[in-house]
Amino acid sequence: xxxxxxxxxxxxxxxxxxxxxxxxxxxxxxxxxxxxxxxxxxxxxxxxxxxxxxxxxxxxxxxxxxxxxxxxxxxxxxxxxxxxxxxxxxxxxxxxxxxxxxxxxxx
Length: 107
Prior knowledge:
Helix 1 packs antiparallel against helix 3 (73-85). The chain has one domain: Alpha-Beta Plaits. Helix content is 41%, strand content 31%. It has helices at residues 15-32, 59-71, 73-85, and strands spanning 2-10, 35-40, 49-56, 88-97. By secondary structure, it is an alpha+beta fold.
């Protein structure tokens, strides 16, 4: 299992737009085949950093997921919403694999 962490730099005056965007992904991502861990908006500290985190079984599964997401009506709508509202200033993806588990759990 791989985990994708998306680090967003957002316009701090458009936090509500980012939260709307995040709620839409909360529906579309699981429907298209990834395990959504969550989207996180600024609360304290930095007002410009936000995160989206989801897991998927492999990079091959990710490619199929991206195809489904691009064809999903809500996915397309959400991409267009982000382009129109311009609340995302920068977006970086990092792929991680679990290196440890909580005490007592197996990997």
